[in-house]
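Model: Ready when you are.
Researcher: Fold this.
Model:
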Amino acid sequence: MNQLLLGSPLKRFVSLAVGLSLIAASLTGCASPSSVIPNTHVTIAEVGTFTTLNADVASSSANKIASDISALTLQNFYEVNQDGELVANKTFGTVKVTKQEPFTVTFTLAKTALWSDGSSVDATDIALAVTAAKHQSFGSTKFGSTLSSAAIVGQPKPGANELSVSFPNPIANWRTVLKISAAAHVVGKAAGITGNVATVRSGIVAAISAKDEKQLGKLALAYAESFSPSSEITNFVTNGAYIITKVSASAIELDAVREFAGSHSAVAAKVFVNLFTDNTSAFKAVATAKADLFAPLATLNEPQSDLVNQSQTLDAKKVKVLAPTSGQSEQFLLNLSGITFSDATYNSPDTAGILRQAFLNMVPKARANDFAALTQVITRSDSFIYSSASKNYSAVSASNGSANYLLQDVEKASELVASAKLSFVPVVKVLFDTDDQAAVAEWTLLSDHASNAGFRLTNVSSEDPSQRYNNNGYDVFIGKAPQMGVGFGSIQQLVSGPNRMPQEQFLGLTADVIAADSKSLDAKLQALDQKLFEIGIGLPMYQVPTLLVYNQRIKGLVADPTANNSTWGYWTWQVSSDK
């Protein structure tokens, strides 16, 4: 990969200096005294190839890198706190449901939401994020998601701080459905729209409103390709606690915004992100103090158990290891729109529910967890909504009905199947990824006693299960899924994920959560968790663990409660000035 062509050093310096002075001038008087400690730095190790810093188009390991950097450089309307709870970020803006039919959400940006070149984050940025999700050509990770069904209300006004979007059905993840990952005026310039920021924004809005396919195609290409190592440094504008000052194929350098007015100010004056070709090299960099921090990403070739083994070989006097749980858990998920477990399959309204409860009694949760614990440190998961990191977890898991399924009960499963009074043996098609070692083991444990419970299992696994998944050709999916608390993932997966719940049932089940305000949200989520166990949508097994290794030079580290992230919690870092 070619190194970045930065232009003349003087031009680059002037561009950065102007950007910094503009943002500082804009924020003076509205920010608290700077928390940045002069002459400090943190070096982060990442593994993989840096292809883009637009996290919305990055994939695989590149997404890990882009997401870690976006945590430093970009804000969202909502953030997740240390307890895994969703918190409004009012210094960036607000999100409100402003109409029920059609379901309409209004995004309003705060005056303190500013790009690092001094321009305000505006309605054009929101409109571009929605447009990217609606057109496959943009390469957005949101394509096919809830945001893809959104429609912009009216015509966006360039420079305005507000935009409304409508959805064909109420959505549960309206607080977090939209993230701005790229400055629209940067994308517009890269797409060939000339002029100042206001003119470029007007050109983008015109293309979106007129559905100008030719110009939208240019915007799509720019959105996907304008944030690579070979891009101009001026493309990397940010609105967070750090600005990007140097970029190459092997390293990214960031400087703190000393007068940042957002919710989390920087502590380290500089952050260096260095890329390594493999986990072994990154582990070694932390062990030899060439890097301060590393959150390895498990892969098929290097599963979590291998990473744990590598971390255990490090010198405990020099390197600390955290093993936090992520916002995901290993789960058995029943397809409520398939055949065997769908209410629509049977004449009696109770039959499918009885079969779902029978199957869940057959799931070998304790044995599967014991098997997983042989190679990694795991925490049992007893909630669809909350991670064990949440302060609500203990109370909700004790009362949601999960205790009924801690141990495999084949006898009870058999009795339930018999009570359904079927004239045939129900067939259960089980889908999982054959490259997923945990899922393979769980399938083996599950199939041991299926016939005794009154089911006939069919293995429909594949190295690429997407085709059968997309064609709805399964009854049970075994694999990893996010917790459905709003801060962890999306309750929306009940209708669009492996459960494939009918839309009408989904809306009836989640209406209280969709309508909840911040004060009542937790209570509604806890009630939903209990309902999910009563319905029998599946069974969570254990929290998917992550790893975070760091050397003694950095203290006060707090692990991301929802994801495998190196940079989350940057505002808690404790670092000493360089000598």
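Researcher: Now this one.
Model:
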Amino acid sequence: MRFLRFSVISLLVLVACQKNPEAEPSAEPSAEPSEQPSEEPSEDPSEGPQWGEVTDPMGMTDCLGDLWMKEYADDLFTGTDQIHYAKLFFEGAYSLDPLDAKTMGDTRMEFWREEEMRYVCRSEGYALTLPTDGLELDYTLGQYGMAFLWPGAKLRTTIERVRPYSTDLSGYTLYTTEWLTRYLSYHLHISANSLAYSHEKVDKSLELIPGHEVTIWSIEVKKAERIPRHFYNIAIVRPDAQYAKFGLLVYKSETDDYELFLDIIRSFRTFKGRGVTRHYYPKQEPSDDPHWDEATRKYYHKLLEQNSLDFGVYARNLPYVEESDYDSQLARFVAEKERLEGPQGLNRPMEILSNYQHISWYGSYNYFPLKNALIYAGGDGFNGKPVLQYTYQFTNDNNSISPSNKQSVKTPLWDILRGVYDDHFRRLARDVKAYGAPLIFRLNNEMNSDWTSYCGMLTLVDPDIFRETWIYLYNIFIEEGVTNAIWEFNPVAVSCPHSNWGEDLAYYPGGDYVHLLGLTSYEMNNGSGPTPFRTMYTSLYNKNEAVFGDMPAIIGEFACGAGGETTGELKRNAASQAQWVRDMFADFAHRDLNPYLGNIKAAVWFSANDYSGDQIVNQLSLDSDLTETLTALREGLASLE
């Protein structure tokens, strides 16, 4: 086997075999690495760590035996005599000590020769061979997936586990059909999104890799004049008769590199992993957007500096004047707002007014409710009015994504990149600009899910498309002169699919495009007792602290349920719901003793129920008969004043 696409060797940096006392490897990632391979040149620190180059002319050829193992071999790399250079990546930086290759840390190795490089992830237990011409390696998300970049092409490799299903054939089948192959193999999804199969599907082939089953989808994105890397080759690689975990490879390119992809697949080998994996995403720092006006900058810094908790309740959307039932919708909105802010509700005005909008509703465009936003929001953090948290979602069908939905299987994301919605987005931007007051722009919450129209399952298991559409809309806002949008990135607490490829950091568009971290964790409270707020948000704090610990955070939506009727008597758990709220405010009253509250500056209760047909699955709405819960909210907020 020879790689045909690439033939010119990259300039390689040699790694010394000798121990260098000034380059002692650390258990922590390098704080100030000097150079980072990136897909696009950028000064944005969120693009990932800049991997420092080790420069010793000795190379590691004299100690390859300390690094190489026979289980790493493929048809091209059969032993150390075929390796020209080696590089050892250990715990976030290139290491000079070959003994690091034997530890139980995060260990990866690169074995270079003239036209190919053998990459070994010792921690996860896999290896593959790649062409070297223009090759760059990005370890930023190493815990969740490894990225390999060439001019015009990108490969992402992840190891997936069949959580939470059993590790037998039935569990593997359930996992893959629910969270991977549901759309890759569904012809209606392919045609609805102007995609097309470009090669015959390779299914469960035992010929490409001895002892491994391989499934390959080759899909071309049509109408791709503005989507350069529109040829996708996607593979699941699994050892025969082993179902607990498998490799997922997603390769996208400007040209049809199907034969090259087959060569890469043929080189893929698995072995027993040894060690742990980590990601090396740099810590995100709060920063002003250079396009903000003074009022928006002032409000952002108020959030940064305050130790108080701004609070809001979402109950109904503000209607926009074009809606046919505008009067009745507005009346319902006003009545619910007055009830929730009244003496039997919070007994105070809300600091945050939450609103949701889709691109369209089953064929009819939605528009920013400018008139009513100016009346009922318009807050700037100082004028006594509520600040608008505006949740905008890239969906045309109310995020109706589910295994049972066989018809509404189109995502707007490909068409966004094609420019289909440009005029509509420009109107949105102009309306936001006309609103004038600082606005928390919460774009596409819960993207790391399997129920939204913008989740990665609908974009060929490629979260990059989400990132690209986020930046696409941001740039339209800048072009239209928007100076008052504070952009909020709000994943759901636990990624679903349970995967590495779909973890929330894979969707993060970068610090140049995000100013607030959104948090979302619900307690549905349909069981014997709720998980405490402290437990839920401590888990989120532990997950986010290393990357987002300095960013201001807002609980974009949350709630504890009172018990749904699909699992028993409706509102049967109202007492425990109220206690959950009391315990939450007790922690906020002693914020200094509860580090998990970190930089939480605001929270919005989602007062709307989940339904299955006509029955309530989760009672989240703060109905007037939930008097104990409303009292707990009212008293809790008063205690923080």
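Researcher: Key takeaway?
Model: The chain has a mean pLDDT of 91.
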